[in-house]
Design a protein that fits this description.
The protein is an all-alpha fold. It has one domain. 79% of the residues lie in helices and 0% in strands. It is built from four helices and no strands. The chain has helices at residues 10-22, 25-50, 56-68, 70-84.
């Protein structure tokens, strides 16, 4: 078997794969959602740490820009400004 991870022993990776395969669909979805939530949290935290003066909205807009592009972030910013009126 060719390993997928350079920092995981092949035996450990094999066990992980077998555990994922044996898990129910609900468990696999739960794990995927948890991983996504953690990644988003860490991304926002890194943005906040790099820009301590940013408000929550600025962090959220920076998150959108980094992950989805400047155009979408700008359109979101304009939308949010119109909604506040």
């Amino acid at each position: 078997m060719i390993t997928q991870s350079h920092d995981t022993a092949p035996e450990a990776e094999k066990v992980q794969i077998e555990l994922f395969r044996a898990a129910s669909v609900a468990k696999r979805i739960s794990l995927a959602l948890s991983l996504s939530e953690t990644a988003m949290f860490l991304s926002r935290r890194a943005i906040q740490r790099a820009n301590p003066s940013f408000s929550k909205r600025q962090v959220d807009l920076a998150f959108v820009e980094y992950h989805y592009g400047q155009d979408l972030a700008e359109r979101l910013r304009l939308y949010l400004e119109r909604e506040q009126l």
